[in-house]
Amino acid sequence: MNPAGRGGARAALVVWLLGLAACIFVIARTPFSADLSAFLPSSPTPAQQILVEQLRDGVVSRMLLVGVQGGTPEALAATSRKMAAALRGDALFAAVNNGEDEGLTPDREFLWKHRYLLSPGSTEPNHFTAVGLREALDDDIQMLGSPAGSLIRQILPSDPTGELVRMIDQFEGGSRPNSQDGVWFSRDGKRALLLAQTKAAGFDIDAQEVAQAHLHAAFTAAQGAGQEMVMSGPGVFAAKTRASIKGDAWRLSSIATVLVALLMLLLYRSPRVLVLAFLPVASGALAGIAVVGLAHGAVHGITLGFGVTLIGEGVDYAIYLFTQIAPGSNARDTLKRLWPTLRLGVLTSVCGFSALLFSGFPGLAQLGLFSIVGLIVAAAVTRFVLPVLLAEGFAARSVEHLAPGILRVVDRFTLLRIPFYVVTIAALAWLIHLGGPPWSDDLASLSPVPKPAQELDGQLRRDIGAPDVSFLIVAPAPDAQGALEAAERLSAPLTRLIQAGALAGYDSPAQVLPSLATQKRRQAALPRADALAAALKVGQEGTPFKAGVFDPFLKDVEAARTAPLITRETMPASALALKVDGLLIKRPGTGDKGGWVALLPLRGVQKPAAIEAALAAATPAGRPAALLDIKHDADQMFSSYRREAESHTLFGAAAITVLLFLSMRSARRVFDVLAPLAAAVLVTTCLLALSGAQLTIFHLVGLSLVVAVGSNYSLFFEKQSAAATNRERTIVSLLFANVAMAIAFGLLGSSSVPVLSAIGLTVAVGAVLSLLFSAILARR
């Protein structure tokens, strides 16, 4: 090597080592996450954005459903009470309820103290007149003989107008759990139930894990003989999913590394060459993680799991180089021959991965950036570093023994052209008959939660009566008071819809926390003490109630007339306060993306069209309320982003086509490269559909990657040298690179995380077909 060459080699090594050091420095300061909301769209419509926020941080996302089973009902009830007592004193939980009265005391005291500001009855006509009071007393007399008579007898002297009962009726509507020994039980009586809500958001997995650990500790301290605890909820699923992602990333990467290493040893029979083969992979992975961390502020665990794919594709470059070094040649001369094709293959792969880079899903955008940076760095290390480190005189001599047999088999692939045409045409005809690929945009199909866990969650929800919202009204406003007033405007039309049978009921933050304007109106409607006393005296005539029995009532109304108005800050820590926090949301950002929203979950919706019509008539044009059908809107959201991904995929394919035309300047040669890729995508789609897989946006991403990785095979087949030795080594290198690719992506397909499994399985099948079809269609 001449001095100039040695200087360039040393410079390449220095730049490489400094780059690795910089990457390690950045990675050491980069946070890692497993928040699956990264695989929700980043910029949907305003209504869909609210849906995404609720999936991440809504009140339901903070809910933990707990069951204690095993043993007698008495023992289970005792454990439930001990657990609830311990958790109510835990700062990590905003509310804990197991059906005991103790858990409802703060809410009951709040409703009683502020009943005249909370009850809509305060502003009804004649409510505090002699006529209205007489009607209320007559109703009280009838209620005293009902099953609720004991409660009425206790509160009657202070609440003859029935404000507390009115509010309780207002909150009724959801299903209630069974009760035994004063605590909640499942329908079959075999499981005591608790409902805990964490202060931490559902997406804060670290905090969710700590809260769940505290819950386990409370059970351990309270449990009786033979008892066990089961737990479910979004926070539980998030924690288990993160553990699954972390486990898959390490497990799959380790297995892929071992299998590819065995393949390298079989082919090169040199531990040193084995180490060198993994340098492009390791360098690309470190660079990809560092750049993603700098660009996104954090690296998702799924991005690390996806790093296993670089073991397949990144090691391809080393295989192409090492395998094609013939005896008597060297790495530099071989690279001069390979580099134009290898460089074009890298560029086509980058075009394919760009479909991920511009995705509206932050998680997919991370995968795209990681892959593009990783492949470019892996190719650069192969080009500039490996020739310096590779021993002079190296040649993969085992290729000489393997190549003749492999070449004979490959040359016979041309006999498969007719079956190839039949299969491809049949696949195309089938897809045309179906009207296109059978895409599924069902959000539930992407859930990483195992079926048994989903079934347990469903059982606990049914037994405990936990909310499982399907329809939700979103009422936006510039500020919190505006949102409460918007919710109040919807009360009358929703009540009429309930009476018409369009829905069974609804919840509203204004039921718990009326707007300040409404509170002022109710306070102004309360009569002065002397006027109320005179009206009560007339209304009480002819009733069995003695004089002076309602003095507490007169006192409480007078106190309410001058009492401070209720704000969220003055509400005590309770389930009602948590309900307000879950239904009155301050949104981040400014303009249309900021402000506040009131959420009104609906129950038993029968006529969505009637509800939408009522909303249009009851809300102002500037900030109209919207009805969200959670499942429908979630599926529509994924459908719209799948269509966006389709356009990005087509853009990537067009970019590859333009790149090939600019490089080859021959329509025939471009066709020779693209034909096997198009056929591989077509047949892979059909095989996935016939296997019963639900094709999602992530399968579409996988198909775009089939083009990205398969283009290397078709390019090398199209440009293979006419010299027999070079052709043999080219085909052997393609075969072993494809095996490495199939190992990496095939293992990814076994992941329990739908994002990884969908992409891995699609690319594994498509990559193998790309090589097979390239061999079948190659010109001789």
Architecture overview:
This protein is an alpha+beta fold. α17 crosses α31 and α31 runs antiparallel to α32. The longest helix is centred in the N-terminal third of the chain and has 35 residues.
Low-confidence stretches: none
- Mean pLDDT rating: 82
Largest sheet: 5 strands, antiparallel
Question: Over the alpha carbons, how many angstroms does the gyration radius reach?
Answer: 34 Å
Total beta-strand segments: 13
Helix content: 55-70%
Summing up helix and strand content along with how strands pair, one would put the structural category as alpha+beta
What coarse outline follows from CA principal-axis ratios?
Answer: elongated
The percentage of residues in β strands lies in: 5-15%
